[in-house]
Design goal:
about 260 residues; alpha/beta; TIM Barrel; two-stranded antiparallel sheet; 10 strands; about 15% strand; binds the ligand O=C(O)c1ccccc1NCC(=O)[C@H](O)[C@H](O)COP(=O)(O)O; phosphoribosylanthranilate isomerase activity
């Protein structure tokens, strides 16, 4: 079993249990359910840097990144820094995140928020909306073409934007459809955890121009972004590079000021 298979196996158990504990009608009663969402697409289209900054305490590849910060400060710092959006990892077992992190981020900033989660059930999309997300992530490697279609259409009906994540050409070919807004290429090989910007460069030409292109993982300096922009990338998802510091907001600000 590779890491993604392990995460998904655990996620299926977690979601089955949650569905019994909190029925969907309760999620739909959240005060956040009717809020106007904020567009990450628009922010990326109007930004010279295109940074989406992530809240990430730990990960399968790095174990502990930072357990000393609170989401409230991180979200406020990211907003002040001028990033386009914030990604909040909500998986508990592998990343130390939670839906409460999403809620706290929502209460502390007006950035578009991406729920970074391993979505395998439309129930998690309702959760995303109920806890204040503006964008959901769909990972092509763990979903069928039919699931990508039904989950992305379900999200669009809730006025959430959809970021589809791919690792290779086959995932991309099966997934391209009009109900997606952004396509993210993940530079991390999930079998070896190695990161290579070459993945983004290679896949860029297969992504149709109507989708915003985002490069994800392993971005640690402005030079990487300068290398990727000529391949059409407008968004850059950065986690560890900011979160490993004492003040992720300040690190993001320093990063952006180099453009
Ligand atoms: O980060 C991991 O180790 C990881 C392992 C397995 C599945 C997903 C994983 N990461 C999720 C992400 O996509 C990254 O957190 C995100 O792209 C930011 O990456 P980085 O800037 O390298 O922290």
């Amino acid at each position: 079993m590779d890491i993604l298979e392990k995460i998904v196996a655990d996620k299926r158990l977690e979601v089955a249990l949650k569905k019994q504990l909190i029925p969907t009608f309760q999620l739909e009663q959240s005060v956040l359910f009717e809020r106007e969402t904020i567009s990450l697409v628009k922010n990326l289209q109007n930004s010279p840097s295109g940074i989406i900054a992530e809240h990430k305490r730990r990960s399968p590849s790095k174990q502990v990144i930072n357990h000393n910060l609170n989401v409230f400060d991180v979200a406020q710092g990211y907003e002040k820094s001028g990033v386009c959006g914030m990604s909040v990892l909500t998986d508990g077992k592998y990343f130390g995140g939670s839906l409460d992190d999403l809620l706290l981020a929502r209460s502390s900033c007006n950035l578009p928020l991406l729920r970074k989660e391993f979505i395998i059930d439309s129930y998690q999309i309702l959760e995303a909306k109920a806890y204040g997300a503006d964008v959901i992530l769909l990972i092509a490697a763990i979903l069928t073409q039919e699931e990508i279609k039904s989950f992305s259409e379900f999200a669009k009906n809730l006025r959430l934007e959809v970021l589809l994540e791919v690792h290779n050409e086959a995932e991309l070919q099966k997934s391209i459809m009009p109900s997606l807004d952004m396509i993210g290429v993940n530079n991390r090989n999930l079998k070896t955890f190695e990161v290579s910007l070459q993945t983004s460069k290679t896949l860029s030409s297969y992504i149709p121009n109507e989708f915003i292109k985002i490069s994800e993982s392993g971005i640690s300096n402005v030079e990487a972004i300068k290398e990727l922009k000529p391949f059409g990338y407008q968004g850059f998802l950065i986690g560890e590079n900011f979160m490993k510091t004492d003040n992720p907001g300040e690190s993001a600000n320093h990063f952006i000021n180099q453009f």
